[in-house]
Design a protein that fits this description.
Largest sheet: 5 strands, mixed
Number of strands: 31
Helix content: under 10%
Distance between the termini: 46 Å
Mean pLDDT: 92
Strand order of the largest sheet: 2-31-30-27-28
Low-confidence stretches: 1-17
Shape: globular
Strand content: over 45%
Structural class: mainly beta
Amino acid sequence: MAGQRAPKRKAECGPQTDAWHVPRILGVDPTGPRVSARVGEAVALRLELEPCQRLPARQEWRRLPGPVLSAATTRQDWCRVILYMPCVVRADGLFRMWYVGSSDHARSPSYIHLGYAESTDGLRWQEHPHNPLVTDDAIPWGHRFQAPYVLYDLQDRLYKMWFTAVDQADTEGAPYLNQRVGYGESPDGLSWTFHPEPVLRTGRRPCVLKMDDGTYRMWVNAPSREDPGLKMTLNIASFRSTDGLHWEPEGDAVRYGGIYRSCVYPFVMPDGGGLAMWFGGHRDGGYFDISFGRARDGRTWYYQNDMPIFPPSPDREAFDARYTSTPHVVKLPGRYLMYYSARDLDDGWTAPDGSRQRDPDGVYRHIGCAELPVTEIEDPDQRFSWSADGKAMPGDGGSLPFVAEAAGRHRVTCRAENAHGSAEYTWDVEVTDG
């Protein structure tokens, strides 16, 4: 599985095939508000584009035989009971993952902290040596980190996180209804500053996209405006914002039905000319699956609720034999990678005092990964152009070794375009004599 890519098909991205394919930035290197360099020193700048490909009609995911991170194998003391809810971003030439964990309790821990790991290939991960990255007492209004969703904002040059936490001022509220959506920012993805109040009063597991017009859209478990009696764990709703902080409801998107007794954990990404959503649901027998839907506009969704697209492993000894949950999908050349939370069939866990405890529903203690090979299509119209301080510069496709001959701040821009649109990113390079 590792390192294998489907071959590119050439010259098939004609007007009828690729009208949807506008350059989108997958990752930039380096990220952050400013890049530091010295006069005469080469700084490697790189822009990665999303490949020209789309999801197949039939998704045949190939799962790794073992978890990529696990509470059962970690050497870090803070997450030896719970470890789950991955969010993965391609940035700084790396795969960067944020997740949550606890060593306190399997069902109702007093804390859940935020962890971080890095990978060069998306398959082998190294936990950050100073984990937990952030403890949940850093949330000004709540506690118990859940469901971090991180994106790198290309315009603001900041990492932005939306997450779920429990409002500590409303711990006696109805189950789930005291879960709020919070917001944080970071210049590097490691050091975070959090908004003093929740940005959504009731919500669970937000997924946020920044659209081409600069607005934000969120899909999240939230109470239904169309059916007020419907629990938030049965309904996924959509919201829109101009700044990522103040959200207005758009309407319900997906709700439970068919073989599923819940509808939770949405993950949305652009696909072709529309949107794709993976989400989870409980079903009879104590199992939990990942299902799938599509939409042209993000409002009217067509989804399947009678068959999982990624069920638990049929191998009863597997780490994901009970639950495959909280999907997060990354689009890469010739393939997609899905990261997900998993439960095995072992219902035992070890408490901090060393005693052996049991949870009949199992424990979220693994993060798995699966691969979906696809055919990448070559875009014959795709081209890159580079400029520094308004002057054109030669670059090798999406990369440039920038060398400044004078101290000061320099603005270096990479622009990618094809027959249907363009995308660009600008680095501020601060150059000193020393």
